[in-house]
């Protein structure tokens, strides 16, 4: 009989949906009802879509006791809990709720803190500072957000919430001492002991951020290579490694990504989740400025030449590997784009302590300077029709997006907001720009690792940008063109410390 049950479970698991009362639920360790609930909760994990469906009952999470259904993992130190979530159906009680919760124990009266979103839209940071004490609350101005994030920094907790597409609203609580090791996870509470309510959690991430004393370009976190559907914002982790994986390009066959790691270039099969190194000859210090030609036949590289006088130089190599051809005679030179006809490469060149955008014949030759403004110009990329080169420039104070004609004329600013905007990537259908946004507390000329950043989308001719992903990353997240061939998805890197 036990063998039959195991066989049935295996068949059920193969569909992608797994029901739990056992251990290890996706990225979590266990799930349980907390408190003396009347109706038992449950969880299903969809391994294909990497989403969680949770049902829970419980009279409330308030006063001196809690009742709810909880899926959790034990964590130590600082962390960020992130998800896109919503309650299912109309519900019975207005104050049914879902969210993230961090607890000192699984006791009903435990000290705890929760980022809670109620069925009526109320959004608040609720906390019990000590066991058996009553719950306190800090309300957010957000109403019914679907992006929910809870971050611990020592004894300070920050709740960040947003409706998908909009920036975060933050509230925080100080002096919440739950101990170093805590229970951290997602929950559903029906606010009615006789009712089960359900919620769906997608894009679930547990992020262990960089330590305060980490040294950039010496200390690295682990990496997730992710793909995301542009229309829904649903993300999938397709490959993870405890290493700095950087800047995925989507190949023309729609089944492979190219990325760099420790100076080498790799090709990742999205379906089999296997990676193989691409031969780049003696060019073994490749950075995250690599670009695929529009016809898919060639790969452009930026790599350290080994000569301190020049630093990074630009090379080209057949898409499946081979002996690279050096294109730029001087450096530093950082590649960012091919022309659609394959005749030119565009790159950032540092000449006389000035960073400008240059183009050069793709077979080598004399470089042509396209920008002359003071400050950093970077991230140049051709539109698929070849009519424009898009780039980012700090010339207006903050880093903003610009475009110009291929000969460098008609340089026009496209973004004018409070963010530092980097690396405009034009969709293959020519309709959209996807780009990376840092907050204004990051120096405009810098694009560092391990920050809370937004991936944003805007029409190719300009307009109001929309946030499409809330990411812990930055440098190497989306430095290079990373649209899928059908313009429906993008690929990028997010980061977290890994064991």
Task: Describe the structure using short key phrases.
7-stranded antiparallel beta sheet, 48% strand, single chain, 499 residues, Neuraminidase, 8-stranded antiparallel beta sheet, mainly beta, Jelly Rolls, elongated
Number of helices: 1
> DSSP strand (E) fraction?
over 45%
* Mean pLDDT over the full residue set: 95
Rg: 25 Å
Distance between the termini: 38 Å
Characterize the biggest β-sheet.
8 strands, antiparallel
Q: Any idea how many domains?
A: 2
| Second rung of CATH, namely the architecture of the largest domain | 6 Propeller
**CATH fourth-tier homologous superfamily of the largest domain:** TolB, C-terminal domain
Q: Total number of β-strand segments?
A: 40
Shape: elongated
**CATH topology value of the largest domain:** Neuraminidase
- Helicity level: under 10%
CATH secondary-structure class of the largest domain: Mainly Beta
Strands, helices and their partners?
Elements: H1 2-14, E1 17-20, E2 30-34, E3 42-46, E4 51-56, E5 61-62, E6 65-66, E7 68-75, E8 79-87, E9 97-103, E10 112-118, E11 123-128, E12 136-139, E13 147-153, E14 156-162, E15 169-173, E16 182-189, E17 197-207, E18 222-229, E19 235-241, E20 246-250, E21 256-261, E22 264-269, E23 274-278, E24 291-292, E25 298-304, E26 312-318, E27 325-326, E28 333-338, E29 344-351, E30 354-361, E31 368-369, E32 377-382, E33 389-393, E34 400-404, E35 412-413, E36 420-426, E37 432-438, E38 451-459, E39 466-473, E40 489-496
Antiparallel strand pairs: 1-3, 2-7, 3-4, 4-17, 5-6, 7-16, 8-13, 8-17, 9-10, 9-16, 10-11, 11-12, 13-14, 14-15, 18-19, 18-40, 20-21, 21-22, 22-23, 24-25, 25-26, 26-27, 28-29, 29-30, 30-31, 32-33, 33-34, 34-35, 36-37, 37-38, 38-39
